[in-house]
Amino acid sequence: MYTVSEITDYAFYNLPAYQIFIPETIRKIGKYSFASDRLVKLDLSKMTFDVIPDFCFHDTRSLRVLKLPQYIRTIGYKAFFKSQISHVIIPRTVEIICSKAFCKSSVLELDFSNTHIEIFNNSVFENCSLLKSITLPRDLLQINNGCFAYSAIRELSIPQTLQTIQEGAFEFMINLEKINYKIDKIREIPNKCFNGCSSLTSISLPNSIESIGNYSFASCKFEKIIFPKSLKIIGNCAFKSCSYLQEISFQGINIKKIGEECFCKSIILSKVVLSDTIEYIGSSAFKCTMVSDMIIPKSILYIGKKCFSNCRILQKIDFTSTKKLTKFEDKLFYNCNSLETIIFPENLYFVGQNVFSFTKITNIKLNLQEIDILAFADMDKVQTIDLESSSFKVLSSHCFFRCLNLNSLKIPKTIEKIQENCFKYCPISDISLRDNLIHISKYTFSYTNFEVLDFSNCSKIMKVPMFCFQGSIWLKTVILPPNLRVIKDFAFYECTNLEKIEFPRNLTSIGIGCFGNCVKLESIDMSNLNVSVLSQICLKIVQN
């Protein structure tokens, strides 16, 4: 009579048997050995083998209760993957659980309290959508990537021995309401650690924590969170979409960096107190929050683009003590509809795109070295802008575009170039143009409210480009640059109030439709000109 000591790989794979009797002589079982969708009864409690191999109970759909051998040390990779087993009794001898061991299984509860497991590997309990309760090993040191992600656990107690938590360990545990731990060895909350735990209402961060990773607590249900003094860095999107978070304070915290979108879309966050150690605040960090005012500490070196955009009740922000901040990045205060007051940093030298668009700011006075396109565009409430003491040389494209109430503008004395659409749809009626102006662009003065434009001091301008003054219906008089040589096509098209224009002696070319629909321009004196190129279309349109 033979003694059976081993069950090989796939031995009972998809076997149409409801019950299998296993002899006590078995010392080893193979991969997929019991992966059968019909198996209902199986008792391994008296076996002496010490490894549940990879895929052993993979996709078992009828087996509900299982007693493991009492000397098991290792549970293999995907051993219970997609298994419908609801109850598994874990022997105290278990030391290793491989990745995805219970992943997507139907187990209801697990107790590892008497084991000496030190590491829970990647995704061990991931997508255990019925797992309501688990007791962790008392000697647990490490929880790996995605270990409990998408599981149904409501409460979790972490042992004091824990030293490391890896990325996404508790991600999208949407039923998790409470997590208990008293640990002081963890330095980092990793990326996505509690991301999407939408029922988690509170958490006490260990005093040892120095960094909070990207998306660590995104979409959690916190109303308030207390940060440990040891905290130095908060990663990108760490508290994004925490829609119940009302206040945060970094007072007394040694934090250096708040990452991009850190509190973005935390839609009722109304109170923020920054510490005097913060140096970096990332892009969109406080976007779409309910903060009404903020004092920026003197330690700040950088604030990213869109940081405060769409903060619709932000009324005042104070940079008084900020000496090191030199740039306002793109859309920094974009669509802050209630923002009336900015106390600017003393050493601000750069303004990016759409920084102040759709705010309630009425007056601006700045000393800048550089501006980007659209720098002051869509400031629909601004009335005065004073940049006279600035030193930049280019008024960028769309710089004052649609400043619908702007009635006073002082530009730097250093301006050499004015780019396209710079003043488009601005109601300003007067501007000083100086002798260092070299270049104007197409549409530069189009659709503006200027009545008189005097270029008599601009001796370096040789060309008026296409559409430069198009649609400026209030324009009556233009004094052209003294050394002008070329007026391009449609330059003064539809300047319907233009009455007088004097041409400089050096003018040699006038383009197509240049004075088209200038209905009040009754005569043009070209008697002193030596014009080599004069478009007949230009003359006909004026005559008609």
Q: Can you walk me through this structure?
A:
This is Surface antigen BspA-like. This protein is mainly β. It has a domain at 429-544: Ribonuclease Inhibitor (Leucine-rich repeat, LRR (right-handed beta-alpha superhelix)). Helix content is 1%, strand content 19%. Strands 15-16-17-19-21-23 form a six-stranded parallel β-sheet, with no helix packed on it. The protein has a four-stranded parallel β-sheet with strand order 36-38-40-41. The protein is elongated. It starts with 5 loop residues before the first strand and ends with a helix. The model is unreliable at 539-544 (pLDDT under 50).
Topology:
Blueprint: E1 6-7, E2 28-29, E3 51-52, E4 65-67, E5 74-75, E6 87-89, E7 96-97, E8 109-111, E9 119-120, E10 133-135, E11 142-143, E12 155-158, E13 164-165, E14 178-181, E15 188-189, E16 211-212, E17 233-234, E18 247-249, E19 257-258, E20 271-273, E21 280-281, E22 293-295, E23 302-303, E24 316-318, E25 327-328, E26 341-343, E27 350-351, E28 363-365, E29 370-371, E30 384-386, E31 394-395, E32 408-410, E33 417-418, E34 439-440, E35 452-454, E36 463-464, E37 477-479, E38 486-487, E39 500-502, E40 509-510, E41 533-534, H1 536-543
Parallel strand pairs: 1-2, 3-5, 4-6, 5-7, 8-10, 9-11, 11-13, 12-14, 15-16, 16-17, 17-19, 18-20, 19-21, 21-23, 22-24, 24-26, 25-27, 27-29, 28-30, 30-32, 31-33, 33-34, 35-37, 36-38, 37-39, 38-40, 40-41
- What would you call the structural class? mainly beta
Mean pLDDT: 91
Q: So, the CATH homologous superfamily of the domain at 429-544?
A: Ribonuclease Inhibitor
| Morphology call | elongated
- Ranges where pLDDT stays below 50 over 5 or more residues in a row are 539-544
The portion of residues forming beta strands comes to 15-25%
Radius of gyration: 36 Å
- CATH class of the domain at 429-544, anyone? Alpha Beta
CATH architecture of the domain at 429-544: Alpha-Beta Horseshoe
How many angstroms does the end-to-end distance come to? 119 Å
Q: Given the structure, what is the number of helices? A: 1
CATH topology assignment of the domain at 429-544: Leucine-rich repeat, LRR (right-handed beta-alpha superhelix)
- Total number of beta strands: 41
User: Helix share of residues?
Assistant: under 10%
Main pleated sheet: 6 strands, parallel
Strand order of the largest sheet: 15-16-17-19-21-23
Protein name: Surface antigen BspA-like
Pfam families: LRR_5
Organism: Trichomonas vaginalis (strain ATCC PRA-98 / G3)
